[in-house]
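Listing S7. Sequence submitted for prediction.
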Amino acid sequence: MFEHFVMVCSHALKVMIQLGQEEVPPRHVLKRWTRDARDILPPEFLRYQTDPGPLKYSSRQHNNLHLLCLENVRLGDSNVDAYGLAMEQLTNLKTLLEQVAAVRDGMGLSDREMVDDSAGSATAHKQHFGPRKHVQAASECSDSFGAPSKKRPAGRPTTSRDKAPYKQPAKRSRFCLICRGQGHKSTTCPHRGDLPKAPRKSPRCSRCSLTGHRRNTCTNTPKAYFYG
């Protein structure tokens, strides 16, 4: 279960209880299951989480802007008047910056991180659901192992191992009797044309060997031969 859903199975929990552990190890607990799930941010703001791991990129320009914004937040949170002034000025600043930042030079940290993670976009979209090392391990396992079947087959559960995909028997392909193509039968073949249907055979009685009726409606009395 841990390989598919990143969830510890009941057998592992029994082993932990047997060893005297009172809580699940932190490496088996994802962030989205805890109260810290509110700290989950979109991929472009992943660096501002409390547990983002080592940063890939950093620049003086980005750090200066970050510190100045934090200082403005601290001052704007002083009183109601400061909050109103800060919100008004920051809203106007955002409107002005959206026009100037429409053309991106690709040197920003968010741009460089998105380009660097484009090859592993599936992993990049899943990083904000928990610790990076746990999600990467789960994604690798999910690529190498298929999810178990949700439909329970009829009968007693088998004890044999699952066969590999290349060992499972594939469904035999059916071909058209006229053009030998796949995807249709001879009755719907476009190359069929106006072929006449074969005449239906007349029923033959298995009792008197005459045509036109069957054994259950036969009125002919079988002949009896005596040899003496």
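Caption to Listing S7: primary sequence and predicted structure tokens for the chain studied. The chain has a mean pLDDT of 74. Residues 4 and 147 are 6 Å apart (CA to CA).
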